[in-house]
Amino acid sequence: MSSRIPPLLEPYLALPPEASLILLTSVLGASSNWLVLRFLHTALINPDASSERQGENEAKVVLVSFMRDIAFWKENAKRLGLDLDKFASKKRFAFVDGLTRLFLPRVPGGRVVESVLSGPDLADVSLEIQRSIQSLKEAVGEEKIVLIIDQLDLMLAAGGDKIRAVNIGEMLIGLQEEVHSTILSLSADYPLVSASQSPLEKDHAALVLNIAHGADFTMSLRLLDTGTARDISGVLRITVGANIERTVQDIRKRIEEKEVLYFVGGDGGVKVFERGQ
Amino acid sequence: MASFRKRNVPLRSGTSALSESPTSIKQELAQGVRPSPLDGRLTTSTGTRSLDGLLAGHAGLALGTSLLVEESGTTDFGGSLLKYYASEGVVQGHHVHVLGMNEGWGRDLPGVVETSKSARKEGNSSGDGVHDRDTSRKSSDGGSGEKMKIAWRYERLGEFGSGSRDRNSSQSTGPSTSNSGAIFCHDFDLSKRLILPSPSLMYFVPSTSKPDFEFTDANNSASPFNTFLNHLITHLSASASNTVHRIIIPNLLSPALHTSELSRPESVLQFLHALRALLRKYSAQVTAMITLPLTLYPRSTGLTRWMELLSDGVLELAPFPSSAIATKSTPGASTIQEEPPQGMLKIHRLPIFHEKGGGGGEASGFGDDLAFTLSRRKGVVIKPFSLPPVEGDSEAQQGGLEHDHGKATKVDIEF
């Protein structure tokens, strides 16, 4: 693997400033998993390895995943040279499992994972995530905690009538108060954000738009508009949010709007390049 | 976690670990399961050889993943795919769990073609599944043209295929390869009936237990989805860790099989999410295949999109209208042996491949124009779609463009 973090994306993937919100959107066929893994990598591993300034750019990460189990993240993080078990034992990484038991009754003989969401009740979900955040906070070391929530929109789609976009938004605000920075990945398929017919579609569109407006910047993945190519997996568009203008000046310097192409190799390595390169 | 270590072994065992590891893997592998030539994860066959070849270079459906087959219109090609998938499971001794159908469905499965099986077995004594293709290529010389087509399809897999062949042959030089000669994907004949073994490993979970005339609480555990999940949980937790299970859900949400109550988003999405959790939990044992009637649940709706997002692979079958098939056989059919395609196949998502980000897999077929044919003896054959040569253009016909579409006339092709 040539470079674990694509050079073009380095400014975006660096540890986000305080109280920031980053939105990753994906569509069917262009998943954001590789991007989430890169965020994990930059947050957990200090890019400039000078040990005296250690802790400056490092953070702890709470990863909440509603669509993928820990095995998937571990396997693919390992390809990036990231041993999640090691970070978990150092109390720098915590995983909240939103897949295994969210809608499944009890599965006998299941291993006891540190944190499992066991029902689609938003209060419980929020509590469980808070608990993981607290457990990392109590441990020694850097206070900065990055919260990554993978496909929170599942709660909206499958959670039933009680869970609306507003409730999710409220829960998010509560969680954002606890952490240094929040990274969300949501689906932004056309039928989910543009149709707005059924309650499911309306709520999804409301949630995505709401978060996109509040986000510092949005990284949206989509398939190539002109068909498929063997050496291109998709298009990554980076859009700067509205509220970045009036807040941190520093982030504005390094964030510029951009559209690039990316290719995820079979070994998990990612190439990011401009059009025509 | 043991499954992880196991998967990595074939990759390492190329040269150094040749003496001890290959035998140990081979013994552990259940029937009808082989490591992917790409990354060594375990795969099983869908029962349709050309579909196996499309799954992003894994040459089979990776265990722990699901496939959603969508179909528009009133045809049931997806149902045929399911039947081949079920038949393959029965033949390989896998446990097959079916939702919403009764035992009659199981009696209608296509049977194995005996002759080609024995011929295949003969030529196949040297290695496992990947060699399978080679033998099919060789043995097809005098046989039907269809096998030639399959071999030709696999030539696109060339690079990795040769690599894996090397790897496999180096493995098979090790002592006592226990599943040498095992067939990964059988040939089935739609006109034959599969004879089920007497203690059948097929389980049928009806979708409606009884008409619900009583005013009971509909959305508690009495829902057929929950019954099915409970059935799966009990079976999976009770069976040994080397048994392989196939989950089959025909016509999900079809009103003929399921009550309208189930098509509420929370109901079906929770079920699919739970199914995904099960697949991941037993990631070395279970695969699932689901068909969905697209006409009732179009792809432009958010609900369908969520069902797709919750599945690992998404295929869409778009059969040609029946009138097109009828007219198709008339022009130029006499000159070309090939059967006209019966519809188009679109790949929207592939297991593993797209979960990683989409790219790097060889010959995924993603984004290609693919067509499928269903015939009695050959089953479902998926191949790249191409327009036929222009009528009377004999050079092009000799040039080996073998696909007859027929719907496209001369006018369509002239640019």
TrEMBL record, chain A:
Top-level taxon in the UniProt lineage: Eukaryota
Pfam families referenced in this protein's UniProt entry, alphabetically: ELP6
Matching InterPro entries: ELP6 (IPR018627), P-loop_NTPase (IPR027417)
CDD domains hit by this protein: Elp6
Gene3D superfamilies per UniProt: P-loop containing nucleotide triphosphate hydrolases
GO CC annotation terms, alphabetical: elongator holoenzyme complex
Pathway the protein contributes to: tRNA modification; 5-methoxycarbonylmethyl-2-thiouridine-tRNA biosynthesis
Gene Ontology biological process terms in this record: tRNA wobble uridine modification
Family: Belongs to the ELP6 family.
Name of this chain's protein: Elongator complex protein 6
Organism from which the protein derives: Hyaloscypha hepaticicola
UniProtKB/TrEMBL annotation, chain B:
The organism's taxonomic lineage, starting at the top: Eukaryota, Fungi, Dikarya, Ascomycota, Pezizomycotina
Region of interest (Disordered), ranges: 1-28, 115-146, 386-415
Pathway: tRNA modification; 5-methoxycarbonylmethyl-2-thiouridine-tRNA biosynthesis
CDD domains: Elp4 (cd19494)
Record protein name field: Elongator complex protein 4
Cell compartment(s), UniProt: Cytoplasm; Nucleus
Gene Ontology CC entries for this record: cytoplasm; elongator holoenzyme complex; transcription elongation factor complex
Record's compositionally biased regions (Polar residues): 13-26
Top-level taxon in the UniProt lineage: Eukaryota
